[in-house]
Amino acid sequence: MFKHWFEQRGNGTMEPNGRYSNGLASLIELRQVAKTYQTAAGTFTALKNIDLEVSPREFVAVVGKSGSGKSTLINVITGIDRPTAGEVLVGDVAVHGLSEGNLAAWRGRTVGVIFQFFQLLPTLTVIENVMLPMDFCSMYSMREREERAMCLLEQVEMTDQAHKLPTAVSGGQQQRVAIARALANDPPILVADEPTGNLDSLTARSVFDLFERLVDEGKTVLVVTHDRDLARRVTRTLVLVDGEIVNGQA
After folding, report:
1. Which end of the chain is more exposed for a tag (fewer CB within 10 A), N or C?
2. 178 closest CA partner among 222, 115, 131
3. How far is residue 168's CA from residue 147's CA, in Å, rounded to a whole number?
4. Would you call 236 helix, strand, or coil by DSSP?
């Protein structure tokens, strides 16, 4: 369903309204998306009528103060959260309308999610963690899964740690494994929620180096970050304030 986007090439330009354009159709589109939660104190509005377009091969940072709606925005794009109102379109799929079963299958093939705290399964080895999404989505044969996992670990310079448990490697190495796992099913989109929050500055820069390389290879990457220096390395920055995008809108 995404092949036609990636058959085209182009370095991209910035349009007068601040939107990055590489001449391709939008891969991600949010139309008047709102998200509210019911709390003991009453209704809390996390997102307010968000309109957003993201093109293939964009590298987008989402920044803002705590509670501004950054993680909620990422969660509605990945289908982890459903919007209270509005539409979320990824490619030709209306994500907001998928059933729970279809949503899990769609996410497994379409979006690689990277978390701040890695969330590797502690009882599985590094390579087994990378193979897990392939097993979940019934993709590739058993032999292909192992070969693919080793190839991905090579990309993140972790082949020598493949048969260790996650607790036997450093935090930076665990995050590299988490990135390899997110790439397991070759999704067109990677979404990372504060992926460098628990890493030292040198390791954080190396993670962003990897993201930049993945964008060059055709991936679309969205990163929630508090690090303004790292955020300067992306093609577009979305600034959220109180549930609204105040800069970088489509």
Report:
1. N
2. 115
3. 22
4. strand
Which domains, from first to last, does the chain contain? 3-247 (3.40.50.300)
Strands, DSSP E only, in the chain? 13-14, 20-21, 28-39, 42-54, 59-63, 85-90, 93-94, 111-114, 189-193, 220-224, 236-241, 244-247
CA-closest candidate to residue 244, choices 6, 64, 10:
64
- The whole-number pLDDT of residue 207 equals 85
> For 121, which DSSP code?
-
Token readout for 245 is 């995008």
Q: What is the pLDDT of residues 195-233, one digit of tens each?
A: 888 788 888 888 889 899 999 999 999 999 888 888 888
- Give the span between the Cα atoms of 188 and 218, in whole angstroms: 8
Tell me the three state secondary structure of residue 122.
Answer: coil
